[in-house]
Specification:
Helix content: 40-55%
Distance between the termini: 5 Å
Number of helices: 9
Radius of gyration: 17 Å
Number of domains: 1
CATH architecture: 3-Layer(aba) Sandwich
Structural class: alpha/beta
CATH topology: Rossmann fold
Strand content: 15-25%
CATH superfamily: P-loop containing nucleotide triphosphate hydrolases
Number of strands: 10
Strand order of the largest sheet: 2-5-1-8-9-10
Oligomer: single chain
CATH class: Alpha Beta
Length: 229
């Protein structure tokens, strides 16, 4: 498994913390880990999400030999990629994204690509993010909430990915706020059962150190999947 795409059921779901924790975990296991985010919005000059992941890895972007390809598109407006680009009188070039992806994947043992928003986000008016995932045959890790409503959003995401025959590695549940334990437990159980999917977590709403500690068993399970491919 050369690459893993980390998507979400929505924006602000916790993709960055999952990407950062997985990157650090794999790096501590001795793997050369690369990170990438094709499009970042609401940022200036460089992706703040990638800066966060680099900080977890103890690196600076200036150290990276492939820095221009880590975040090929960054837009100041905090909107959907197609609109953010349009407001800056620009356009997301899918060919440029693919070239950046191939270059980054060649310089790492495992490349983690963080998505933007949810799976069906338009990168431009004629290309959904999910269509590019299909074209590049990237296995996907889905990040979702623990709260009420997550069953619908998560099962819809799973169905959309499966309809395009995109491999799903599993679903990681992320606690964005304190929740009823019974509801959280049932959400995870029913999504695993009805979605026929492997589930991980939940990650707690806690300090970064506590979240990374809680991530350890998730990392171990994902590492087995990576080595098995």
């Amino acid at each position: 498994m050369k690459s893993i795409f980390i998507t979400g059921t929505d924006t602000g779901i916790g993709k960055t913390i999952v990407c950062a924790c997985l990157a650090k975990f794999l790096a501590l296991k001795g793997l050369n880990v690369g990170i990438q985010k094709w499009v970042s919005t609401g940022n200036e000059n460089f992706s703040e999400d990638m800066e966060f992941c680099l900080k977890m890895l103890g690196k600076e972007k200036e150290e990276l030999p492939n820095a221009p390809f880590v975040a090929p598109y960054t837009f100041g407006f905090p909107y959907s990629p197609h609109l953010a680009a349009e407001l800056e009188r620009k356009e997301v070039d899918i060919k440029k994204i693919k070239e950046s992806y191939y270059i980054s994947s060649e310089t790492s043992e495992v490349l983690l690509v963080e998505g933007v928003g949810g799976t069906m986000v338009p990168l431009r008016k004629d290309c959904l993010l999910i269509d590019l995932l299909k074209e590049l045959s990237l296995p996907v890790l889905v990040v979702t909430r623990t709260k009420l409503g997550t069953i619908n959003h998560t099962l819809l995401t799973i169905e959309a990915l499966r309809n395009r025959k995109i491999e799903i590695l599993g679903v990681i549940f992320n606690s964005l706020e304190p929740e009823n334990d019974m509801v959280v437990e049932d959400n995870i159980k029913i999504i695993a059962q009805m979605g026929g999917i492997e589930t991980f977590g939940p990650l707690p709403k806690a300090t970064l150190e506590e979240v990374f500690k809680a991530f350890q068993p998730i990392g171990e399970r994902l590492l087995k999947r990576i080595k098995a491919e």
